[in-house]
Amino acid sequence: MKTIDEMLNLDLLTPEQHAEVGAWIARAETPEEILKMPAALWQAVERASDAMGVDRDLLRPPSLDAGHLGG
After folding, report:
1. Residue 66 belongs to a domain
2. d(Cα 15, Cα 52) in Å, to the nearest integer?
3. Which domain holds residue 8?
4. Would you tell me how many other CB atoms lie within 10 Å of the CB of residue 67?
5. Number of domain units in the chain
6. Using the 8-state DSSP alphabet, how is residue 62 labeled?
7. Which domain of life is it from (predicted)?
8. Residue 70 lies in a domain
9. Considering the domain boundaries, does residue 11 fall inside one?
């Protein structure tokens, strides 16, 4: 939910889209049910994810010092 909140704060989702996506996720009991989200909502989330670079972050190799945070 934090990610969709950030999408709303960055004006990448409308308040209505944010509410609909949040409600869908809250109702879903499995990841498979989340994947059944209506196409228009998925497209909105995908556009927002692309604008935020979510995929780039997930594909970036881990930092060599990632295990030593807070040292």
Report:
1. no
2. 17
3. 2-54
4. 8
5. 1
6. P
7. Bacteria
8. no
9. yes
